[in-house]
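User: Look at the shape:
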Amino acid sequence: MGFWVRIPVPASLRFQSRGWAKRLGYYDVPRTVTLTELANKLDISHQALSERLRRAHANLIDRTISSTEGRSDRPRPDLLT
């Protein structure tokens, strides 16, 4: 088993991947393009595209959570159990 070296992907390429995913129907229900088809169009592996989209989702979730911190309308952890 080899080792992996993480090469930073420029923000413009990450944005391009998300934009194409949206435009081509990856987020539609039902999807009109698969991850593999989308990766082929972008000329990258499906694993690389999957990682880019997961990082984008995580970033979006983190930013959403950060923007709601301190607000009184967010769920209280003690009420979730």
The mean pLDDT is 77. The CA atoms of residues 18 and 56 lie 8 Å apart. The chain has three helices and no strands. The first helix runs from residue 11 to 23.
